[in-house]
Amino acid sequence: MLINEHDNVEVLLQAEGDIPAGHKRALRPIAEGEDIIKYGYPIGHATRPIAQGEWVNEHNICTNLQGTLEYRWNPAPQKPLIPTDGTQQATFRGYLRDDGRAGIRNELWVIPTVGCVASLAQRLATDFERGCGFPTRAFAHTLGCSQLGCDHEQTRQLLCSLITHPNAGGVLVLGLGCENNQMSTLQEMLEGKVNPRRVRFLEAQKVEDEYWDGMTMLAELQSVAAWDQPTDLPLSMLRIGLKCGGSDGFSGITANPLLGRLSDALVAQGAATVLTEVPEMFGAETILMNRCRDEETFHKTVKLVNDFKEYYLSHGLPVGENPSPGNKAGGISTLEEKSLGCVQKGGSAPVVDVLDYGQPIRTQGLNLLCAPGNDLIASTALAASGCQMVLFTTGRGTPFGTCVPTLKVSTNHELAERKPRWIDYDAGGLLNGKTWEEATREMLELVIETASGKHSCNEQNGYHEIAIWKNGVTL
User: Fold this and answer.
1) Does the structural domain 107-225 have CATH classification 3.40.50.150?
2) Cβ atoms of 9 and 38 closer than 8 Å
3) Domain spanning 9-62 has what CATH number?
């Protein structure tokens, strides 16, 4: 399959000889040092001469990525976004919260301030849901103490963003008492941002029976959240995270561009979508930069990319240290190749804003969010920004889900058949005759159904996790 007329490699839809499906084959002889072109862009250079028809992989191609770069704003013509059929009249059944945002779930959340009470949080959530049947989730993590400076502040900001998430009808904030992440500081940060009827604070060291007090507080929260009823809400109130993980050679051909089309359709209706995984923009960043709605947003995007490269370099690591072994086995050879597939999840909409880690969505449209490529950390960051669900494309498969519904979209049919309990939608049909219009409509219907209460595979399996980005010292 030839993706772009300027490419000098093609992607095999089926295995041929020693070359697996999803991998690249040279369309003509490629000289040593010559760029390998895929998607119409360089994905690296040949480390030795490559013959026509030869397998092109990590053994004969190397990244072109280096350190930080200077960029020039070259705004691309903005294409009008055409709504997908049915989006103008479509609504979802969600929960209108006190702050005007929409939730797509009405759950009780137990959020520990520190890892020392993570097991207590899990016991409270499990026992309470078992006892009364009300959906109750605990989100364990290992941080909240022995951190300093911006790393410590980053943890507090992310937890505050989760405490105010619209998918939670009530939140129990559970602390120990002696940790760096003091409850009093969190309360100050949350002042005026939460309804006190929907948030309770409990420090285990300050009470005689933390389990009993926790169960009592959850019962109080449940008595409030139980009155919440879903109502018809417009698609403009959706906030959707865009993520990929375990990518393969089909990611940039099927599932990622499918999410891009869906993102454009939702943005056309006034919704917000969020693209993250900054390292997986390296090599494709100019595509996003040239779609920034104004020069200020362009400069924010430049800073986002270069600051993340500096983060790598400050630890003595190369900026192109990617892809993973699973990516390579699936047909991705360099970070540029991975990035050119990754950014397609952002569709063609203008980039309207750039968000710091833990910062809430401020603008309707396509947003960029600062977070690494790590699946759990990036998905948690998307949720913390206010996304009610995460759409997660994968070619290798993964069972996990973050604290919001995490819909898995397979890039190939074989994965969907082999892991039906992981995969919510099979984009592999696009390789077998399904049209883009049909797949986009089906994906939109699935998003609306999920926003209206249909459980994703990760919810059916009971998989709910968070991970907080840590880049500083541990005391």
Assistant:
1) no
2) yes
3) 2.30.130.110
